[in-house]
Amino acid sequence: MQLSTGAGVIPIAHLVVFAAIYAAAVASPGPGIAALVARVLAEGTRGIGAFVAGFIVGDLIWFAVAAGGFALVAQTFAPLLVALKYAGAVYLAVLAFKAWTSRVGVIDAVPPRDEGALRLFAGGLAVTLGNPKVILFFLALLPTVVDLGRIDALGLAELGVTIVLVLGIVLSGYVLAAERARRVMTSARARRLLNRGAGTVMAGAAVAIASR
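Given the sequence above, the corresponding structure tokens read:
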């Protein structure tokens, strides 16, 4: 089913259908979700807003590429996409190494490291821009769901706002769940196991991004 509209606002029913399809795509397991959950498990929620913002901006960039009809242009810049993919994979690999090698203690006695908002944002952006699942949704699936060629600027803005809201809500849910799980494991031994588990997940996400 393809949603389309003429000039003006997109019908609420159409936005709801799009939001449901997009939410299902976002919530499904993938390298981005794995990276987000693993980072919260290893480091907590400090600075996670900047990390999530990188995810949101990355999705909006791919949405803009799809809406502008630049899918073929994106293929022309395939080397850049490959570079972004490996940049995201390297970032996750570095996080995995830090999680495995970090010294731990009782959770309340060890403050989380401050990585800096800009660095976290760039990391989230790199992971999203190089995530095959995100690219597949916006460049392959989205055009079959929404007739982008028949939607005006206002309609595109509405879709953009929907993307921000849905992605923010879904990722926030994962963050809260991961932080609750992290708080349950408070001993030094439990934190060591948690960090190494999170590091393993991030390493797996790095491999998943780099190999696709």
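DSSP finds nine helices and no strands in the chain. Try to locate this feature in the token string yourself.
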